[in-house]
Amino acid sequence: MNMDGRLATIIASSAFGAKLGEMIEVTQDGLTWTLSPRPDLIGNPLLPALHGGAATAFLELACGAIVAHSLDREVLPRLISVNVQFLAPMRLRDITTQPTILRTGRRIAVVHADAWQEDFSSPVCAAQCEFALSA
Amino acid sequence: MLKIDVRDGLRGYMLSVLSEAGMVAIPWSAALEIEFLSSGDGLAALRMPWRKDLSDQDGGAASGAVASLIDHGCGAAVMSKLARPVLISTLNLKIDHIRPSASKCPVTVWAHCYRLTSDRAFVRAEVWEQDAADVFASAQGVFSINRPITA
User: Fold this and answer.
1) Under 8 Å CB-to-CB from A120, ≥6 apart: which residues?
2) Is the bond preceding residue A48 a cis peptide, omega within 30 degrees?
3) Residue of B nearest to A15 (CA)
4) Are strands B35-40 and A42-44 parallel, antiparallel or unpaired?
5) Is B64 in Cβ contact with A89 (below 8 Å)?
6) Stretch B131-151: mean pLDDT, rounded?
7) Closest Cβ opposite residue A54 in set B10, B28, B56
8) Is the CB of A70 inside 8 Å of chain B's CB atoms?
9) Residues A14-43: pLDDT tens digits?
10) What is the C-alpha R_g of chain B?
11) ipTM
């Protein structure tokens, strides 16, 4: 886990987040997230391709963490909904995202994240997440 | 060194999604210990155990692990509806987390491929712990049917 200490705390609030976090690196400004997938994240061993569920988990985690970070919280917010689109086959190599908070209200935050592998201009998947901010 | 014919491998992979062996063949599903329960006629049921490292901040099954279970369950439902081995891929998936899932409970996904066209499959799924009438997550997705796997 290579990231700012506050982000590391947020991610580790979930045991699953900590597990995935071992493969994640975040730039110093907290904006750019990269997952370097280990072979156990393979969904199709023949290509081999990254599992769609693993990519979804990565995007959900990045989106939730930047919401918590922006609100000075230490725990990941609870996910209400995620809508993910798979745009191109995902290979087993680094996948990067820069999540954008579309809106933070009193009770809900909405975050969008595109992810790319080699070419920033051709994303491989995109997710939109809604989080609950109240307990 | 073992030589694998990609065509055979592809067919074996697609068919194995429908069996317990397939869960081991797909590394991420094996890592989550996803267990195949049953499938047929567009329906599939899979189970994932509760594990500390698969749990979230509230102690229930983590949303990311549940998303993986749903994706795999939906894929298995599509496979069971297809009469022939075909390569499929997830186009989109929408997952709603209705309530937090209970701690220390295995979770079951039930997926239904309710409509199949020549190049797309439409799927709904529900996830619960103990009671199929008390789901904690529901999902809807579209799969692309890419190309037949011919011998």
Assistant:
1) none
2) yes
3) B53
4) unpaired
5) no
6) 86
7) B28
8) no
9) 999 999 999 999 999 999 999 999 999 998
10) 15
11) 0.95
A-chain CB neighbours of B13 within 8 Å are 44-46
pLDDT digits (tens, 9 = 90+) for B113-123: 999 998 999 99
User: How far off is chain B from A125, nearest CA to CA, in Å?
Assistant: 9
Q: Which residue, chain included where needed, has tokens 């081995």?
A: B85
Instruction: Please report where in the chains the tokens 């947020």 appear, as a residue.
Output: A10
Q: Please give the structure tokens belonging to residue A5.
A: 């200490």
Contact: B90, A52; criterion CB under 8 Å: yes
Q: Which two structure tokens, joined as six digits, stand for A23?
A: 């493969």
* CA torsion, ordered A12, A16, A20, A22, to nearest 10 deg: 50
* Residue bearing tokens 């997938």: A37
**Cα–Cα distance measured from residue A71 to residue B87, given in angstroms and rounded to the nearest whole number:** 43
The packing angle between helices A52-70 and B63-81, to 10°, is: 150
What's the alpha-carbon Rg for chain A, to the nearest Å?
A: 14
